[in-house]
Amino acid sequence: MSDLSLSDIRAAAARIAPYIIRTPLLPSRALSDLLGARVSLKYEFLQETSSFKPRGAFHKILGLDDTARARGLLAVSGGNHGKGVAFAARQLGLSARIIMFESTAPSAVAAARAYGAQVDLLPNAAAGFARAGELEAEGYSFIHPFADPEVVAGQGTLGLEILADAPDVTDVIASIGGGGMIGGVAMAIRERRPETRIWGVETVGADAMSQALAAGQIVHLPAITSIAATLGAPSVSELTLSLAQRYLEEVLVRPDADAVADMVWLLDSAKVLVEPSAAVTLSAARQLRGRITPGGHLVLILCGASISLAEMMRYREQFRV
């Protein structure tokens, strides 16, 4: 915890302001009617690359010295973090090498390459991080997706925006992969408004944080079986686990089928198309319906929209939604 503070997140907001979009937070009548409480949506998927990841990427990279930048940037990613690093590298005139997995959505691979990054495909996350260790030893500057306090501080700027736009927020629901985004957001909000409850949600088969919280220590998943690839961290980090233990109310785990069904519901009723990793926040809100008071103000973070029409149709067929 000593590695990150609210002042770090505030400083990150100032550093990255010229490079990121301050995404809107808007009320949703459809969701308010559905859930019986006032609901607002944080449209973070409108960020360049369609996710929150550029926040942490820019903050980390901008803090590197010229020598570290010149060595080339390196990232391991199931999709969104890699795109974030690739985009930040292009904007800053730097080279990036992104390790993705054979299960990564083709659209994410194509997007990272379109930003100018070299993309290497490895069989899985374990192989990807092992290869990253070798490349880092060769000199690459590794941008970890969630174990780095500077990355987490960058992601936490999202929380400052939520609190500025919804100072009466009572509950926030955010998805968890490695825990960097929710950890930074939770610190940013609860250090200023301790009564706000921060709820996390994972999908079955990508539930490294809930398992770590239950065990009281980091748990390494043997495999990621969820379709929500951007939640597929094989483990959380000491930093993100400590943030979760201190700031989170609870972490829920929902099946892929719920995430896909709510992805379709959000498109039909709220007119937004997000990936299952973001839609699962609605699945969590349904589970929490009796615990969110009618007078509360619930914010759902729609953290990513890295999905193509073909992928959406495949998921609908797979889960018969």
Multimeric state: single chain
Radius of gyration: 18 Å
Distance between the termini: 42 Å
CATH class of the largest domain: Alpha Beta
Tally of DSSP β-strands: 10
The tally of structural domains comes to 2
CATH architecture of the largest domain: 3-Layer(aba) Sandwich
> Strands of the largest sheet, in order across it?
1-2-10-7-8-9
The whole-number mean of residue pLDDT values reads: 96
Which range does the strand content fall in? Answer: 15-25%
Number of helices: 14
Sheet having the most strands: 6 strands, mixed
Shape: globular
Describe this protein's structure.
It is a single chain. The protein has 321 residues and is α/β, with parallel strands linked by helices. The protein has 2 domains: 6-52 and 148-319, Rossmann fold (3-Layer(aba) Sandwich), CATH 3.40.50; 54-142, Rossmann fold (3-Layer(aba) Sandwich). Helix content is 47%, strand content 15%. It is built from 14 helices and 10 strands. The strands form 2 sheets. Strands 1-2-10-7-8-9 form a 6-stranded mixed β-sheet, sandwiched between helices. A 4-stranded parallel β-sheet has the order 5-4-3-6, with helices on both faces. Strand 7 (171-175), helix 9 (180-190) and strand 8 form a beta-alpha-beta unit. Helix 8 (149-165) crosses helix 9 (180-190), helix 12 (256-270) crosses helix 13 (276-287) and helix 12 (256-270) crosses helix 14. The chain is globular. The mean pLDDT is 96.
